[in-house]
């Protein structure tokens, strides 16, 4: 009988203990659920703000707008609710200008060296190291020289002219600094500074000193040796039409004295290479214009240094 009472009492205590454990468990679970809800609510509150900050920092909003097409060029809104712009469209974008065959150089050894009254050779007594005698007919008693690439090109030009029935000869090529001093001084003594500057380059400013310039004449038209009328001879016309195919340009064009500083010289050829020469001739430009350089009609010094 006593055992039965003890057993019943033990079961009751065990049941009460289990009930307490269940209540504690439910409370803990409720606390955990409440904490979880609070954490989720906090995340839901903070995450959008953090995401906005990230997008702003990385510039994603603008990128997405561009991908969706929400904005037109110039910042115009292309959304369905936007007002149409009253400003006219600027039209298609301008294509970049094509690259030219060459750029100007101030290296005297370059075939693209720019020499004019504003751009003297540096050093002023520069002398090329690859001078050779072109295999062409000449009118000079002394040997005429050019830099090797110009000499080869001139020989090809004169040969091609001969094949077309036009007889050309070379009458001038490389001139040293000292030779140019003598030529300039002699003419200056006769006609003065202004008249001399129109036709003869000052020492250190001559294209002939580069070894890239050659003067040609018509053998069959001796009355037009180094005169404007050379341009009207069959040989002069052939040169104007074909020089570029051999890498030469007519350096001093008619009507371009205010750009080049020199009167029209249809006999004066300057070697710049075939690609550049063809572009210059096709566009009818001086080298100053082709290379986007300022006009160089006058020297900085009013009077040249003379011996």
UniProtKB/TrEMBL annotation:
- Which InterPro entries does this one have? DD-CPase-like, VanY-like_core_dom, VanY/YodJ_core_dom, Zn_M74/Hedgehog-like
- The region called Disordered is annotated at 67-126
List where this protein forms a coiled coil. none
Q: Name one Pfam family in it.
A: VanY
Q: Which domain of life is it from?
A: Bacteria
Record keywords, A-Z: Carboxypeptidase, Hydrolase, Membrane, Protease, Transmembrane, Transmembrane helix
- This one is known as D-Ala-D-Ala carboxypeptidase
Query: To which species is this protein native?
Result: Nesterenkonia sandarakina
The organism that produces this protein has a lineage beginning with: Bacteria, Bacillati, Actinomycetota, Actinomycetes, Micrococcales
């Amino acid at each position: 009988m006593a055992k039965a009472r003890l057993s019943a009492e033990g079961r009751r205590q065990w049941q009460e203990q289990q009930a307490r454990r269940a209540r504690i468990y439910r409370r803990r679970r409720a606390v955990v659920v409440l904490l979880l809800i609070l954490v989720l609510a906090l995340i839901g509150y903070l995450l959008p703000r953090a995401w906005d900050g990230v997008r702003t920092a990385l510039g994603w909003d603008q990128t997405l707008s561009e991908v969706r097409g929400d904005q037109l060029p110039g910042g115009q809104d292309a959304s369905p609710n936007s007002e149409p712009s009253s400003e006219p469209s600027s039209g298609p974008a301008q294509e970049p200008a094509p690259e030219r065959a060459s750029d100007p150089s101030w290296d005297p050894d370059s075939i693209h060296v720019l020499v004019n009254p504003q751009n003297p050779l540096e050093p002023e007594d520069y002398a090329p190291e690859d001078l050779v005698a072109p295999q062409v007919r000449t009118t000079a008693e002394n040997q005429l020289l050019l830099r090797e690439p110009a000499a080869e090109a001139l020989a090809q030009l004169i040969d091609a002219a001969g094949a077309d029935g036009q007889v050309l000869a070379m009458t001038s090529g490389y001139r040293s600094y000292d030779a140019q001093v003598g030529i300039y001084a002699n003419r200056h003594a006769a006609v003065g500074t202004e008249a001399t500057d129109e036709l003869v380059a000052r020492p250190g400013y001559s294209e002939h000193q580069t070894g890239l310039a050659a003067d040609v004449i018509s053998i069959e038209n001796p009355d037009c040796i180094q005169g404007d009328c050379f341009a009207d001879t069959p040989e002069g016309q052939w040169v104007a039409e074909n020089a570029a195919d051999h890498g030469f340009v007519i350096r001093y064009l008619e009507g371009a004295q205010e750009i080049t500083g020199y009167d029209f010289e249809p006999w004066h050829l300057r070697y710049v290479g075939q690609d550049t020469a063809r572009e210059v001739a096709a566009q009818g430009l001086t080298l100053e214009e082709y290379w986007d350089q300022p006009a160089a009609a006058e020297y900085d010094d009013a009077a040249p240094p003379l011996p």
